[in-house]
Amino acid sequence: MNKINVRDKPIKEITLRRYEKPHSDLNERTLVRKFCLSIGLLNPGDKRDVIVDILRVLMNSKEPLSVTEIKEKLIELRKSENLELKGIAESNIRRQLRRLKELYLIDKIGGAYMISENDSFENIFEDKIKKFVIEHIIERVKDYAKALDALVEAKKYKEMNEN
């Protein structure tokens, strides 16, 4: 009998959270933080939120930035806001950049990073995250739902024929 190798590791995943509507008195950092929380890049209560400032550095840059440049600007930004300089090791910055890239928020061009196609966050969310991540996940969940329905129907049919 052939064994089917089933993987429990997801191909792609996203966590979505609904927060109150953004209001005009939110500062830039809070707004970016809520965005990151909303799309699962941060978990509620996370103290390690350097990804917020990495995204801020990239969104405020007109040019693609190397990891070294991101680190320099990150240090400046966090110092100017009296934030701890935790999480600014290049290895962690690279890891956070990979996470942003996996969600199509940023692009890597050569050795530099920039906001995806210099587009708006709304367009990036609609055109990339919603269409390429969320819709594909929903379709796969539907596939599993259909397979479950078929299994239930097969069991019902089998029970009816046994009686």
What's the layout of helices and strands?
Blueprint: H1 28-38, H2 50-59, E1 65-66, H3 67-80, H4 90-102, E2 106-109, E3 112-115, H5 121-162
Antiparallel strand pairs: 1-3, 2-3
Structure, explained:
It is a single chain. The chain is mainly α and 163 residues long. The chain has a domain at 28-118: Orthogonal Bundle (Arc Repressor Mutant, subunit A), CATH 1.10.10.10. The chain has five helices and three strands, in the order ααβααββα. It has helices spanning 28-38, 50-59, 67-80, 90-102, 121-162, and strands spanning 65-66, 106-109, 112-115. The protein has a three-stranded antiparallel β-sheet with strand order 1-3-2. A hairpin with a 2-residue loop joins strand 2 (106-109) and strand 3. Helix 1 crosses helix 2 (50-59), helix 2 packs across helix 3 and helix 2 (50-59) crosses helix 4 (90-102). It starts with 27 loop residues before the first helix and ends with a helix. The mean pLDDT is 92.
